[in-house]
Design brief:
The structure holds two protein chains of two kinds. Chain A is built from 14 helices and no strands. In chain A, helix 3 crosses helix 10. In chain B, strand 9, helix 9 and strand 10 form a beta-alpha-beta unit. In chain B, helix 3 packs parallel to helix 4, helix 14 runs parallel beside helix 18 and helix 14 packs antiparallel against helix 23. The longest helix of chain B has 29 residues. Classes of the chains: A mainly alpha, B alpha/beta. Chains A and B meet through helix 1, helix 2, helix 5, helix 7 and helix 11 of A and helix 1, helix 3, helix 4, helix 6 and helix 17 of B.
Chain lengths: 339, 715
Amino acid sequence: MGRTIVPLMAIGLLAAVVQLGVPNGSYAAKILFDIGVNIILAVSLNMVNGLTGQFSIGHAGFMAVGAYTSIIVTYYGGFSIFGDVDKHLTLGGESLFLASIFTAAIVAAVTGLVVGLPSLRLRGDYLAIVTLGFGEIIRVLLQATPPTLGPDEMSDVSWPARIIHLGGALGFSHGQSYNSLAWTWIGVGITLLVAYRIRESSHGRAFLSVRENDIAAEAIGVDTTRYKVTAFVLAAAFAGVAGALFAHQLGAGTASRPEEFNFMKSFEIVIMVVLGGMGSISGATIAAIVLTLLSEALRSVQDYRLIAYSLLLILVMILRPNGLLGTRELWHLRKKKKS
Amino acid sequence: MVHDFVSTLRLCCLVTTALLATAARGDEVVLGEYGSLTGSEAVFGNSTHNGLVMAVDEINAKGGIHGDKVRLVSYDDQGKTSEVGTAVTRLITNDKVVVVLGEVSSSLSIAGGQVAQQHATPMVSPSSTNAKVTDVGDYVFRVCFIDPFQGYVMARFATDPVAKHGLGMKRLAILIDQRQAYAQGLGKYFEAFFVKMGGTLVATESYQGGDQDFSAQLGRITSSGAEALYVPGYYTDVANIAKQARALGYKGPLLGGDGWESVQMIGGDAISGSYYSNHYSADEERPAVRRFVSEYQRRYHEVPDSMAALGYDAAMLVRDKLEALPPQAPGEQGLIALRKALRDALAHTQGFAAVTGVISLDDHRNAKKAAAVIRLDGLHTPLATTIDPPEGDFAEEARAAVAALDRRPEAAREGSAGLGQLLLKGVAVGSLYALLALGYTMVYGILQFINFAHSDVFMLGAFFALRFATVFRMTRPSALQATGLLLLSMAACALVGFLIERLAYRPLRKAPRLNVLITAIGVSLFIENVGQLVFGKNVFQFPQLTETTLHIGGIAVRSVEVVAILGAAVLMVGLEVLVYRTKIGRAMRAVAHDHNVAGLMGIPVDRIISLVFVIGSVLAAAGGLIVGLTYGQLKQPADASWVLYGLKAFIAAVIGGIGNIPGAMLGGLLLGLTEQLVAGYLSTTFRDAIAFGLLIVILMVRPSGLLGRRVVEKV
């Protein structure tokens, strides 16, 4: 019990600290928000790339699924419940947002199952191409949706038909920014906790065996396809959570736009995982923090940012094939120094 | 874990305080700009930026505002909504700007507007035309007209009788870019007003921005008997659409909106005689325009587009209002008060004389002003006519027109592209996929990884050919010269392919395949972004062969397409002979079978692998030249369309059976034909989605592809 209660209390404390300590709407709050979402994305992708050694480059696609699912819940669902589309700073409003996050996770997980099942039966690099294609399909489908309905237009459209009105290429233009730093960092804490506990469990050993040698794993009775699919579905669910948090982000409630979840977004997440060390949870976390801050500091020299990233990626692969931390965690390094 | 979080948090705080250290200084007026200075819309973002910088310099040269210097802080948002949130928050809370100026793209202006509204800071968008932008709140303004009006303008221009400077046309076709919110919105309003004014739409088609091939849509449009074609997209696609429409025998003019700006630079003769609506024309005689254009040309050595003019106007409007207000009182309260006062002053803008016309802001904070209709005449863009906003409540009128349109029953599709035409195009596109697929399949056969950088070698093939053509001053290359270009570009690509393998992949020969795959993606992005720096971000015109179009039984056959298909066939037969009939080919097959054993048999494995990369790159270079010659223009190196070609070629290789050379050719042709038939008979919007769907089905039913053999993995 203690192994669950203590971390959960720590997460609650952390959420309270960021919520009360950082003024709402400030620049620091926006940066902390960006960092939080990126940590969730990097750590969840690490479950696929690091834990089972598969390679997915369509993580942003699952983020898109989560973002749009959650905004359907808070906007169209909110209209059905409250009778208007305003932001409700009540217990009801916050519960609605929480429900939207869970719905986003579930829908993203189911999508992950549909995408992952056929491709994970095959060799690893097919997953790369299928996830890439999946991201593209999601974008095309979202762009073809009709404009968002305003509150006065709702009565013209019956309830189930409303949910396809997602704003097309313009993006979802009416959303409310339900998110706060507290929600974001609770999400971060839970993602880290789940990732860590899974890896340290007996199932975690099975995941790692798939990564190290899937033929040998199969031979000792590990159902490799099942573990690959499980990891993939779990990662998709957390990407959905990140999408839900992103869609209701601070300031701009209209962040959901098909182009936002393109291949470049997926690639940025891959970079974080690879740099941090494939399999290292603290590595992915640190990489997410550093790269988010770096990108902010380099805002004026963006032309060279991607060149630097891609070069870094090649060099890391050649010089440190397992990423900066490898499969170790940050605290392992310290122990090593002491001994 | 907890300790980890705390140290993480401390790190964040440290770095953010470092970033926060840029506070505003006294005795200056700070204006903030956010814009897409990089990313896919960087061309427009940079024009706007130039206009703003020029305005600020002029204001400072005349002594600033109330004697205070004006400082412009600009942040790049890379064309992403989440970055917009950060950039605008930073401008308002850290740089303490009085006003935020920004975005071209409407979705980004909406996101930025929400942040500005929340912080009670006025925002002026120079050129976002979507109606929803100013709906965000009472702090959001713009100095341009809106899409409903722009749609109205072209509908009026098309239907007005010739005596009233119109075209007097009643039967039109429309072709909409489904990837751009701008095109979706503008197209809808044009359609609504056009139908209201008594016109008939004989064809409604769509495409995805960045598509290279529009023959299925244009085939239907041409056979529908439309008098003119309305394309509310961006100029990069429009130039391409115009050329392909002419090749298919379409004779009428094309009509468009302000996204057409600069189309005369790349559209050539095909676009001449067409019309588009715009904010102003650089060829106008008004003194304000002449002064602005000559000053801009002196500074930047190019003719200012309307994004530059609107950026300039936005800054000048803000200056005008700030001059009339008392200077900023010291402290945070002074800034808040000044922002509020500026908002109120902006809301009462009446008759402000600007470069893009006389600006009055209406109750919805949108500029109410006349639109220019521009005729394209070679490289000139003279004014055809100007159209004033209608009297009365225009917003209400636009809403009613759209509502009427939505109630109208769905019109049946008229016209078709013709099966023969689709098949010919399918073979042409398919042989291009096949050429590329060969590179993927050969590398996969030998090293078992997806060479993501292959599509970039293909892109370089096109750009090398373009560079050589420029160096040797070929504008209309003869057949011999084109062959020379092909050989030079092949040689250059062969070198690039060799270097990629030698420097990036060979050190990883013993590493896990995942690492090689990640490296390949790194190489791909590296080439794209360096290419963008070296070659630029524009769309490039590619020299054209003297070509003839034959009409055989109703099918338009372009000579360049025939040459491309034949050339691709010759190369593929050559490869087939090389791999299956020569000693080197036998060595290649041996290495593909087993590196170690091949090495023991005395085959120089590394050299054979290099050779495979060289051959793949040579074929890709040929593909690049084919794209240039067929479409007459090249998208910028980092454009997604290059990657899409590569993706589809890889899909073709998987369909045929990866590692299998005849399979790649078969897969390429199949994919090309499927795509054209889907676009011709089912849906152009979902063409790519269907291609990927096909891949997933093939993977489920026949994982080793059509011609591939099932391989059992051994320990």
